[in-house]
Amino acid sequence: MRKLFSGLNQIAAGLGIALSVAATPAVATDLTFFYPVAVGGPVTKIVDDMAAAFEKEHPGIRVKPVYSGSYQDTITKVLTASKGGDAPHVSVLLSTDMYTLIDEDAIVPFDELARSDEDRAWMQGFFPGFMKNSQTGGKTWGIPFQRSTVVMYWNKDLFKAAGLDPERPPQTWQELVDYGRKLTQRDASGKVTTWGVQVPSSGFPYWLFQTFTTQAGVELMNTAGTETYFDKPEVIEALQYWVDLSRKHGVHPQGVVEWGTTPKDFFERKAAIIYTTTGNLTNIRNNAGFDFGVAMLPAGKQRGTPTGGGNFHVFKRATAEEREAAMKFVKWMTAPQRAAEWAIATGYVAVSPAAWETDTMKKYVADFPAPTVARDQLQYAVAELSTHENQRVTKALNDGLQAALTGTKTPAQAMQDAQREAERILRPYR
Fold first, then answer.
1. Cβ atoms within 10 A of the Cβ of 41, count?
2. What GO CC annotations are associated with the protein (predicted)?
3. Which residues of the chain have pLDDT under 50?
4. 368: number of CA atoms within 13 Å, CB side?
5. How deeply is 250 buried, as exposed, middle or buried, from its count of CB atoms within 10 A (0-12, 13-18, 19+)?
């Protein structure tokens, strides 16, 4: 699962969630809620407690959270259940699954669930950057919940040791190389003990790659999800830059860098600068034994990042009564106060401007301003790669990226091959 949850003890108290549940009426509306987490632990307790608090305020509705594995596991289970007539009523899935869910006729647009002016105002209340992966064809198919951008973390102690200003991270692609050279450390035998820069390339390489392509001034797909542009010169330029960080400049590990171990490498001072999700912010805050900074990503031709993370979706199999209950649940979970508390607990970006205006969030960022970085970076954000047949198209790109990073193909050949495969997959949708 992309968004790692760690170090979330004392969350229930921080959320101020009441655990007692009021007695439910004899007849209640039951909702099955698929949530993408692979194992039990603090995050499941948070979600359980939130469901209990919702039930207390809505005694006619019962919510059953089902912890359905990774995002990939969850979309597979959801689609299988939908075909068998047993889909959940509501689920959090990757925002990029939107076209797949529409093509499978699995979900309903929230426009059909919005009955009042208040409902419609709520739908307009989220950051526009997060709605780019939530809307298509003039309809809203997903509601932002646990959303993110890629940000840069740096070890201030290692900056000081390298003679760099610990309060000034690199601002451009060239500065990232220059800083990386000063920060990369080797032992007496020449073996690298600390890499200057580390950008993970397993799990979600396309997502990290989109940071470079956006900064190169190009997007990877059209807004209809029917075309990709993997072989554009700017895309190849972006991949060449990523490859050059290791093979030309020697400031980045060669080959495939693991997503899951990158925060640990940062904690262990094996990497001075890392790129990862803002969803790792709470994890890093709780586990880094040193002073660290969080910043927007360095600019190429411009600044940029893709958005990421999960949206709420309501499924078509639900009855009218269940859809109404699901709408109430999604509205409750994304209300400003709850969005602020969820962001503080996890490190995700609070999804609405109103959440940032709550006293809870204002107090939090006054003491710890790092979360504002991802929020402010939204002005430079683009939609995460999402197309029809999204998993197959994404795999074509991921395979190309890893071929280039491991040196089995040139960046140009890798992207030309990926584009050829994407065009073959998407041809029926054009």
1. 14
2. periplasmic space
3. 1-14, 16-25
4. 14
5. middle
Q: Are residues 281 and 312 in the same domain?
A: no
Q: Do residues 159 and 183 lie in contact, with contact meaning Cβ atoms separated by under 8 Å?
A: yes
Output the pLDDT for position 7: 41
pLDDT of residue 14: 47
User: Hey, what are 100's tokens?
Assistant: 């797949």
Are 166 and 280 contained in the same domain? yes
What pTM, to 2 d.p., does this model score?
A: 0.89
Which residue type sits at 282? T
Secondary element (H or E) of residue 386: none
The structure tokens 């197959």 sit at 392
User: One-letter amino acid identity for 423?
Assistant: E
CATH number of the CATH domain containing 347: 3.40.190.10
Q: Which two tokens stand for residue 2?
A: 């992309």
Q: How far apart are CA 309 and CA 292, in angstroms?
A: 24
* Judgement on whether residues 215 and 302 belong to the same structural domain of the protein: yes
Q: What is the DSSP letter of 256?
A: P
Same domain, 177 and 232: yes
Angle, helices 411-426 vs 390-406, to 10°: value is 170
* Domain end among 333, 349, 374: 374
% the chain with pLDDT above 90: 87
**How confident is the model at residue 39, as a pLDDT?**
53
Cα separation, 28 vs 158, in Å, equals 57
Domain of 406? 149-307+383-429
